Amino acid sequence: MSCNVSKILAALLGLVLTQQVLAVNFYRYENDEGRKVMTQTLPPEVVSRGYEVLNERGTVIKVVPRALTKEELAAQAEEERQKRLDAEQLERDKQLLTIFSSPKDAERARDRKLEAIDVYINVTKGNIAKLQNEYNAAQAQAAARERSGEQVPDYLVSKMDSFGRQIRRAEESIAEKEQEKISIREEYQEDIDRLKYLMDKRQVAK
After folding, report:
1. First-to-last CA distance in the chain?
2. CA–CA separation, 31 and 14 (whole Å)
3. How high is the pLDDT of residue 17?
4. pTM of the predicted structure, to 2 decimals
5. If 0-12 CB within 10 Å is exposed, 13-18 middle and 19+ buried, where does residue 17 land?
6. In terms of Cα–Cα distance, which of 187, 174, 183 is closest to 118?
7. CA distance 88 to 171
8. Is 23 strand, coil or helix?
9. Residues whose CB falls within 8 Å of the CB of residue 53, separated by 6 or more in sequence, listed in order
10. Are 102 and 199 in contact (CB under 8 A)?
11. Which spans in 100-153 are helix H?
12. What is the spatial distance between Cα 159 and Cα 188, in angstroms, rounded to a whole number?
């Protein structure tokens, strides 16, 4: 009994395997005249047009789309780039709204930074004025020595050189701070304009 069952199972298994081996896929594509063609082999020159794979029962088991043109690939790349930019902008907007509650809030933050820089500039200008007075005093002493026919001492020359260097560094620092103020205004203006846009958009959505 068991022997007969084993033979039947073996026969069925062999039949299934034979059917699988005999199973043939077909390819359906559109020829140059625009008509559908079905073959067992796919010509290489039509692969880029796209095609369908069908089993022996004529059922579509796979669809291969046509290759995109250069223009379509470029448009697809541009669309993906724009999506990425939109996602990045959305994230920046979230961060911006976390930091500032309104455009006025951003303006106040900007003004605080500018005021702090102005304080630094005014203090530095005061230091320059003091250094300039010291330099002028040393220069007057040197001039007096020269008028009297005496040689200007090295310490006096070094003092004037030191004052001169400190004055130049302070002036360069002020110039850098002035440039920093310009950058701050530009950066905050972008944030302020964006906040205004987001506030207006939120208002319209209500």
Report:
1. 81
2. 39
3. 44
4. 0.61
5. exposed
6. 174
7. 40
8. coil
9. 25, 26, 27, 60, 61, 62, 63, 64
10. yes
11. 103-147
12. 43
Give strand pairing partners of 53.
27, 62
Token couple for 84: 């990425």
- Under-70 pLDDT residues of the chain: 1-23, 205-206
Residue type for position 69: T
Domain boundaries, the chain: 23-67, 68-99, 100-205
Rg (CA), the chain: 42
- Tokens at 127, concatenated: 């230091």
**In this structure, which amino acid lies at residue 76?**
Q
Enter the tokens of residue 87: 């996602």
Give the bridge partners for 26, in sequence order.
54
User: pLDDT at position 175, please?
Assistant: 97
Q: 100-205: which CATH topology?
A: Helix Hairpins (1.10.287)
